[in-house]
Amino acid sequence: MTKSPSSPADLSATEARSLIGRRALSSTELTEACIARVEAIDHAVNALVARNFDAALAGAKAADAAQAQGEPLGPLHGLPFAVKDMIDVAGLPTTFGSELFADNIAKGDDPIVAAMRRAGALPLGKSNNPEWSAGGNTRNRVYGATANPFDLTRTCAGSSGGSAVALACGYAPLATGSDTGGSLRSPAAYCGVVGFRPSPGVVPGNSRGMGFIPLSTSGPMARNVADAGLMLSVLARPDARDPYTHVIDGQTPWDPAGFAALPRRDLSSLRVAMSEDFGFAPTEGLVRRQFRKATAALAPFFGRAETATPDCTGSDRIFAVLRGVLFVGQHGARLEAHPDKMGPNVTENVIEGRSFSADDIADALTRQSALYLRWQEWFKAWDVLVTPAVTISPRNWHELYPAEIDGVATQSYYHWLAMAYASTLVGHPSITVPCGFDENGMPFGLQIIGKRHADREVLAVAAEIEAVLAGLSDFAPKGPDLAALSAARPLSEAENFLNF
Q: Which residue, 58, 326, 337, 387, has fewest beta-carbon neighbours within 10 Å?
């Protein structure tokens, strides 16, 4: 049994917004359906860890009343959305998944939430993430683990795992996420939804402690590409507080509205490179096999499709050093003051970061610049690069991180995210789209990467590929079994739900 199309909770954002605009659906009806879905199955997956139901319903009723009075409707009018527990929603907890902030209540909205509200969207609640978004497994000591809705024993990845699960289960048509080494893309792949990492500055943020190191960015998550584009049209606003958001005379070089109106793209005109591993990512054999099946099915639709990859020499080292520097800056003082309240991933990253010398940092920054130049030269011959979204199939959520892949030890707790941080290092827009199921019966995602600042082009190409996949029975997306989730025992009863 898959998700019933008869429930408003399963509508896409664009479908729901169209129905609301035509008065064929009210925001109240949609919000009530989303709340009912959460209440029916969240005990099984633990994705929405703080709830804003009363306020969301009040907002929905106000939205319906405003519409009845003929007031202008925003692009997201009346649409509920989930908010990753890394950013503030006024009156709700913002814990960052950290015991140190378990009782923290936000006094105001993060700029992203404020932008979504201005567009008419309604925050439904906070979605779970790892402590400080460190790592690709969504579990922490405040709220516990979040399970994959397609197999409750397996991880939903992370760090935007709660958002991905919420989307897959029909809690809301849109969700916020953020990404350093794959935190938008990996959970989207594991849950059969869409996660888009934009070029630096397209989605401005003012909460990065080291704003001039743009490894981290927020981005949209949705159940399809068009919905991600619609949400991006709201998030991609002028805000000079982000040093990578270029604001000239109050406007950005990119047209935000364009993300909500994607052009058609002729796949037969595209030069498409396909890579199983970027030449360095520790990719599981199972993933390689599934990727080959998917690209063999897609290749006839492209003008040119060949195996190729940019030169990614040094990527592991560059990412390790720069990530370590970020963690020392963000969490070094906290670790010294509260070592018993900091989890193993954050602790490991701070220790690693402090092991690097000034020479190491200078070398990493120099190598990163050379890496960027190689990617720019390489992309002169290609329009997009297609890869697997993640190096491995989802594993048991009790495993904090994969210590080995196909019997070979990984270098760190984040090494298995190499498929994603390859494009992070050069700042190229990257999107994950669902691509059927792997040999383990788990969702499989393709990553589509474009040229720097070609965000609209990446979305447009992804939408065309999404449409092709929907017509191929072996690769069409399917939702989780809601009846099984409803009947499942509470995840909180699982062994080591909170302790790790």
A: 337
CA distance 275 to 205: 31
Is the CB of residue 312 less than 8 Å from the CB of residue 278? yes
Crossing angle of helices 225-235/455-470, nearest 10°? 160
Looking at the predicted structure, is the pLDDT value of residue 5 above 70? no
Looking at the whole model, is its pTM more than 0.90?
A: yes
Active site residue 218: no
Q: Quick one: average pLDDT of 386-413?
A: 97
* Contact assessment for residue 143 and residue 434, using Cβ atoms and an 8 Å cutoff: no
341-380 pLDDT per residue, tens: 999 999 999 999 999 999 999 999 999 999 999 999 999 9
Active site residue 369: no
Give the span between the Cα atoms of 207 and 210, in whole angstroms.
9
Please report, for residues 45, 127, 172, 249, 442, the alpha-carbon distance to residue 3 in angstroms, rounded to integers and kept in the order given.
16, 20, 13, 46, 16
Q: Measured between alpha carbons, how far is 70 from 66 in angstroms, rounded to an integer?
A: 7
Q: Is the dihedral of CA 389, 391, 395, 398 positive or negative?
A: negative
Amino acid at 399: E
Q: Please say if the pLDDT value at position 500 is more than 90.
A: no
- Which of 27, 127, 133, 159 is the catalytic position? 159
- Sign of the alpha-carbon torsion through 23, 25, 30, 31: positive
Tokens matching residue 211: 């704003």
**Distance from C-alpha of 211 to C-alpha of 223, rounded to nearest angstrom:** 30
The C-alpha atoms of residue 179 and residue 156 are separated, in whole angstroms, by 15
Known catalytic residue: 183?
yes
The CA distance from 185 to 438, in Å, is 17
Torsion angle defined by CA atoms of residues 423, 424, 430 and 432, in that order, rounded to the nearest 10 degrees: 100
Q: Of 3, 27, 84, 275, which residue is the catalytic one? A: 84
Dist. CA 317–CA 425, nearest whole Å: 11
Question: Distance (Å, rounded) from C-alpha 417 to C-alpha 419?
Answer: 5
Of 441, 84, 472, 435, the residue nearest 225 (C-alpha): 435
**So what's the pLDDT on residue 420?**
98
Question: What is the pairing mode between strands 80-84 and 122-127?
Answer: parallel
* Tokens at 430, concatenated: 């990257």
Candidates 26, 127, 163, 183; catalytic one: 183
